[in-house]
Amino acid sequence: MAQQKHTVNGIIKDRRNGELMIGVTVRIEGKPSVGTASNEYGFYSLSLPKGNYTLIISYIGYDEQRQHVQLDKNARIDWLLEQATESKNNLQEVLVSSAKKGKNLSNAQMGMETLDIKKIEKLPVLFGEKDVMKTLQLLPGIKSSGEGNSGFSVRGGATDQNLILLDEATVYNASHLLGFFSTFNSDALKDATIIKGNSPAQYGGRLSSVMDIKMKDGNNQDYSLAGGIGLISGRLSAEGPIQKGRSSFIVSGRRTYADLLLQSSEDFKDSKLYFYDLNVKANYEINQNNRIYLSGYFGRDVLGFGDTFGTDWGNTTATLRWNSVINSRLFSNTSIIYSNYDYKLNFSSSGNDFGLNSQIKDWNFKEDFSWFANPKHNVRFGLQSIYHTIAPSRVSGTSVSSYPKSTRYSWENALYINDEFKATDRLTINYGLRLSAFTVMGGDTYNTYNNGVLTDSLTLAKGKLGKTYLNPEPRITANYRINDVSSVKAGYSRNTQNIHLLSNSSGGRPTDQWIGSSYTVKPEIADQVSIGYSRNFHDNDYEVNVEGYYKQMQNQIDYKNGADITFDASKDIESELLFGKGRAYGFELIAKKKSGNLTGWISYTLSKTERKIDGINNNNWYDASLDKTHDVSVVATYQLTPRWSLSGLFLYSTGNAVTFPTGKYELSGQTVFQYSERNADRMPAYHRLDLSATYETKKKKRFQSSWTFGLYNVYGRENAYTFSFEDDPDNPGTTRVMQTSLFRWVPNITYNFKF
Amino acid sequence: MKKLFYLTCLSILFASCEKEVDLDLDNKSGTLVIEGNITDQPGPYYVRITRSVPFTNTNQSPPVTDAFITITDTQGQADTLQHLADGRYQTNNLHTVPGHTYNLFVKTAGVSYTAQSTMPAAVDLEGLQQDPVKMGSDTYYNILPIFTDPAPLGNRYFFILTVNGHTKKILQTISDNVNNGLVNQRSIITSREEDEEIKVGDRVNVEMQSVDERMYSYYTALVQITADRGPGGSVTPANPPSNINSGALGYFSAHTTRSSSIEIR
Predict the structure, then answer these.
(1) The domain at A214-754 falls in which architecture?
(2) Which residues in chain B have their CB less than 8 angstroms from residue A669's CB?
């Protein structure tokens, strides 16, 4: 006979500021196999047979709370967690946290890491601009495109194969100043999660990874102001309650001021060179079961020189969402999301103007349900619909008579269902299916090319539906807990991608263009299998995770050799593309020390990533440019005294695969270099050490401040940024190689305050 | 544009530095290089045949002196070229007409190479204008070629700019894709390198060639691999797409040519 079941549910918040808490563990005393965790909106739900229970709520760095509940009907219990004070709890904050110590063992999710933004503040960074994207690149399997580049490659994927979300909105270009900084101002952020290819079915649209970044909700208890000033930028944030204890807002801004210094010099007085970010977010509690959120991001880079030259680019995103507790077991999140990325560039000389611009704009609707069916099944299902508007790079100006490139429209839809199934006390299976559909919309002429040769052409009237690509994407991961300290995991997933970035550099430039799948460009497809093992030591103070993966990619896109991608490219850009496949495999290890005065991690990746593109390297496999065989990061923070802490960071990686000349010849007296196979050469290995020290001043009433001093590239390694091959001006008739390096010994000093 | 990016970056990156290094480069040289030009000006015309050399050698390319070379057209002309010296071969009596298509045949060391090129209709270069660009206290001079693009779409131009007769040239391609049928307003962007920039008093010569589509692609790619590489420097370089088959480097171009000079004031 089935026992009658009741549900206990509620919202978990931080008492100090009312921020919703994600991933807080909810357990039942005496029943180790029953439990759940709060979702990304702080909501939890647990169904249990009628009876008396003691609920235990725990989260690392917070005091554990217990409450007795007599469950003879559904109960609602909301929680306010108190941060553990230092006297009560000697735990140091951990840099990379699993919500609960030992959670890495029970969670079926693979290839996932979460960074708590508060906890990365002390790590040394270039110019002292703390940057969540740079910190994520210190984790195994995630490789930086290089210095001065915020692009990254996950498990052998391309930089455009990462879905970067800010409060659910896609950020199409996450870099500032040509890539030296990311668009994410840490002051406005709560946490960042990266999932390396095994994402649950609610995520989709990119092959390699999901980087899910959430903004802070704002303090709903009290008003506060925080800010900081560093070598190149200043930051200021204000937050406070709208309805005390129930709803709040936060506004956070950042702007660089290097241009103000530049303008004081005669040579640069007409120059413009800055970027800014503005993050705003507000939430409003309608009633206990309904809450709305509005969040927005505006960022822009501006670069210019008098009237001669100017360029600016940036992202705008806005998210309106409505959280609703429909009943004790069903939670709904409805969102309307807007994303926009555009750039403009203009030149002016002798009265002629010339401009270049491009844009990608999305309207996105999402409906997501979490159904806490019973303690064994936690089901997530929903749909997503995105309308893309993509304006290709287009020129304008006084000397432009025609331009044959029109704006293209496409419609991307998905249905998904995912079940987290606790099969036994030891076995958890997370399985799901995402059905994605991408429809080419009318308003342009679509050409079909086979190896660059035009084979068909179709003009679709505006508003008409063209070709639809339908792709089922099955995903499964399983976790088996061997004993109290170790577990094994395995997973398979398929991801598809219909929005592609065309770039002829591995790092990415603001002028790189996005295109949708079309009649020539097919959806990219990746299949990944992975296995992993986790073991915790010394009462979970140390954690070791290893994972191995093999990934296959279809319909990968590359430019032809010598493709004409200048702005007056005569041809349809699709005729300049080649297609092929990719494969990547590797081994990742991360060992963390999570408590004590010394915390940090060591990460190591051994990997291989290759491409086979029809028409390149005689159709043979070749190394992708971000194929870095070895990649090591060591990250450590040491609490020297209660006021002083020290941090260090060491990186080592194999150089990128590049193409160097294999000979030279002469045409009309000019030296021309000869090339043979693509990516057959290597940049030298990259390594460097960064150090920083943070001093926290004595707290006066509400006023808190800190100083951070850092040195980037402590031993002044001249890491090669580029090599150029040229005629030697000192020895006419011969050639030479010049190496350019950036950033030797860059010091920084940052002052932060809060009251 | 790349140079502007570079300049801006340099102004931020006070810590960047450049030095000469030794790199152990692979040697896959010895490839046949063909450089053939026929124009709408009176002949004779020349084809030069050499082989590529390792990076570490001097720039001297070893000439190929025993090649059999013919140029033919669709009108029944056939001209077997004579070797002069240093890998240079000369036509005897080839007569060229804009609009006609020419075929090059080269045989050496048992391998045959062929190429085809069509000479476009000539477009006149009416003159040059200096186009000063002020950057802070510096003034750079770009050069504006004055010409009127003919009404039909599809004109392709290649410019060779020489300063004071120096051997180092500045190359640029322009298509009529965005300014079809208009008087040209796009300048040739000159070097910003300290010892190469154009100064007042310099004599600048510009050769304008009207080329066919394949030569335009070739030159566009050639400009990309010879220009400054800029930040990131990671554009994957490759040999420009030659119109010669059998794996030879170089090109065979039937083009029209016009030149003009200007003194910077």
Answers:
(1) Beta Barrel (2.40)
(2) 167, 169
* pLDDT tens column, B97-106: 999 999 999 9
Across chain B, mean pLDDT equals 85
pLDDT digits (tens, 9 = 90+) for A358-395: 899 999 999 999 998 887 888 999 999 999 999 887 77
Mutate which: B177, B180, B192, B229, vs A, most A CBs within 10 A? B177
pLDDT at site A191? 85
Mean pLDDT value across chain A? 85
Specify the CATH number of the domain B32-118. Answer: 2.60.40
* Burial grade of B75 (CB within 10 A; 0-12, 13-18, 19 or more): exposed
Task: For residue B244, list chain A residues with Cβ-Cβ distance below 8 A.
Answer: none
CB pair distance less than 8 Å for B50 and A352: no
Select from A506, A660, A729 the Cβ nearest to the Cβ of B234.
A506
Q: What is the CATH number of domain A5-81?
A: 2.60.40.1120
Domain spans, chain B? 32-118, 123-235+256-263
- pLDDT, mean of residues A504-532: 82
State in words which class domain B123-235+256-263 has. Answer: mainly beta
First to last CA, chain A: 59
Do domains B32-118 and B123-235+256-263 share one topology? The answer is yes
Residues A561-572 pLDDT 10s: 767 666 665 567
Interchain CB contact of B60 with A (< 8 Å): yes
Residues 6+ apart with CB under 8 A from A1: none
Region of A306 (left: φ > 0; alpha: ψ -120 to 50; beta: rest) is left
Domain boundary assignment for chain A: 5-81, 214-754
Burial (Cβ within 10 Å: 0-12, 13-18, ≥19) of residue A551: buried
Query: Please, which pLDDT band fits residue B108 given cuts at 50, 70 and 90?
Result: very high
Contact of A344 with A312, CB cutoff 8 Å? yes
**pLDDT (mean) for A717-732:** 85
Contacts of B233 in chain A (CB under 8 A): 721-724, 740
